[in-house]
Amino acid sequence: MALINPKKKEVQVKIVYYGPGRGGKTTNLEYINKKFKKRIQNEMVTVKTYGDRTLFFDFLPFDIGEIKGHSIKVQLYTVPGQVKYNATRRLVLRGVDGLVFVADSMDLRREMNIRSLQNLKENLETFNKNIFNIPLVLQYNKRDLEEEGIPILSTDTMQRDMNSRLKAPSFAASAVKGDNVAATMKKIIALTVGSLRKKLE
Amino acid sequence: MTTKDDGGSLGAEVSSRLDELFGDDDSEVTPVSIDSSDAVSVAAESKSMAKKAAKPSLDTTADNLGEDSPIRNLKALVFSIDWEITDETMMDFLAEIKRLKQKYKDDKILLLFLKLHESIGKYIKAKKARAHPDAMKFVASVYKNFEKVFLAPGMKQSRKKQLLTAEVKKFKDFKQRVLLRESTGEPVNVVESAAGATAKATKPDSGVALSLETKEAIDYILEEIKKEIKAEFHTLRQIIKNLGA
After folding, report:
1. Beta carbons of B3 and A134 less than 8 Å apart
2. What does the pLDDT look like over A57-87, one tens digit per residue?
3. Are the beta carbons of B11 and A64 separated by less than 8 Å?
4. Hey, are the CB atoms on A182 and B76 less than 8 Å from each other?
5. How many angstroms separate the CA atoms of B208 and B205, rounded?
6. Distance from the B230 Cα atom to the nearest Cα atom in chain A, whole angstroms
7. Which residues of chain B lie closer than 8 angstroms to A197, CB-CB?
8. What are the DSSP calls for A118-163, one per residue?
9. Residue of B nearest to A180 (CA)
């Protein structure tokens, strides 16, 4: 639930990037942080241990200015991919307002994407949230792998696997190259802030 | 449904603000495979995308195996356990290793790689969520070099041995770290070595922490601090209890 401070006219929106391990969630945030460093004016916080795996979370806060008389503060989070840290994953979902599901386009990751999405659905349910009602954007990441001759799933297949019922906005993307990373972020922020309109008006 | 609704005029205002803030991202101009007329819905995959020459990738994150590769299933299982460690996945993983061991029983190098997989697989199966955080990293590393050797039958024997030796060394180091971790409070666990021998955890002497890598040393110190704090709290609780009595 977004934190709204009526006195200060301030709204804090929490957006979580979710998805299978090594799918590119942290890369999304790193790209945003690097590309828009001057405008974000905040440091990305990464809590890591043991090499390159995110064991806790990445956190990137920034302001988008005033909308309808409210100052909007956005917080982007990622969650660890390994299920052995599901407790942490669930914890990061507490108070979530919007979600980006970062799916891995690699052929071999097909089953993992589906399982991870199912896991998201279940974890949301523990907070009495419904995946069909929460602002959600799907990102089909690692499209660049095809250029290297690596077999990837077609976006049609990924849509069928994950989005046939959800019907959420979706983007084919390459977090490494930055393709559609900002577009994904813009879409989820617009959806999430849009979902708060009754509270803001 | 909120997922399809930007929130009317509010959504438009937000979108316009976001365009002002993040609109000049060059990467959005050339989306990978999306209908540029509607960046929100994914269009059908562009079938005309020219396929560049396949570049062999040795990264375990890349799918460079053919549909009928004998190790494709193993690779899929390595990915699966990276996401979720369950009895079912681990049993499938160990069954696949067993199958491959039989298939490549005459190739000593491949066989030893598979034995390394088997050892670490048994350890992860036993410990599950409590497995050492480096366990998956080790599985990925062993698989990476196994695939490297497997995909290059013409590779010199000495090079193959070199890759195997490096993994055996990593395995030994990993085993030491596991033993140390166990000795800092967790129950004693058995790690089966590739050669079939087993090693049981023992309490390290007071000097062990000094010889560790920095991060391991920090973990060790943190564990010690935690114990210390726990003991302090216990004492405080006792004092408060006594004061109340």
Report:
1. yes
2. 778 888 888 888 888 999 999 876 554 567 7
3. no
4. no
5. 6
6. 22
7. 7-8, 10-11
8. HHHHHHHHTTT--TTTS-EEEEEE-GGGGGGT--B--HHHHIIIII
9. B28
pLDDT per residue, tens digit, chain B (245 aa), is 334 555 567 777 888 888 888 876 655 544 333 333 333 333 333 333 223 322 323 344 445 677 778 998 898 888 777 766 777 788 999 999 999 999 999 999 999 999 999 999 999 888 876 778 788 888 989 999 999 999 998 899 999 999 999 999 999 898 888 888 777 655 433 333 443 433 333 333 333 333 334 455 555 556 656 666 777 677 777 777 776 65
Chain A residue numbers touching B51 (CB-CB < 8 A): 146, 149
> Would you state the structure tokens that stand for residue A179, as one six-digit string?
């393709």
Per the CB < 8 A criterion, the answer to whether B49 and A146 are in contact is yes
Put simply, the answer to whether A147 touches B42 (Cβ < 8 Å) is no
Query: Residue A105: pLDDT band by 50, 70, 90 thresholds?
Result: very high
Tell me how many residue pairs between chain A and chain B have CB atoms under 8 A apart: 211
Q: Do the beta carbons of residue B189 and residue B127 sit within 8 Å?
A: yes
Residues 6+ apart with CB under 8 A from A63: A71, A72, A73, A74
Residue B34 has its nearest CB partner, among A151, A171, A186, at A171
ipTM rounded to 2 decimals? 0.72
| Cα-Cα end-to-end distance for chain A | 17
Indicate the residue of B7, B22, B64 with minimum beta-carbon distance to A194: B7
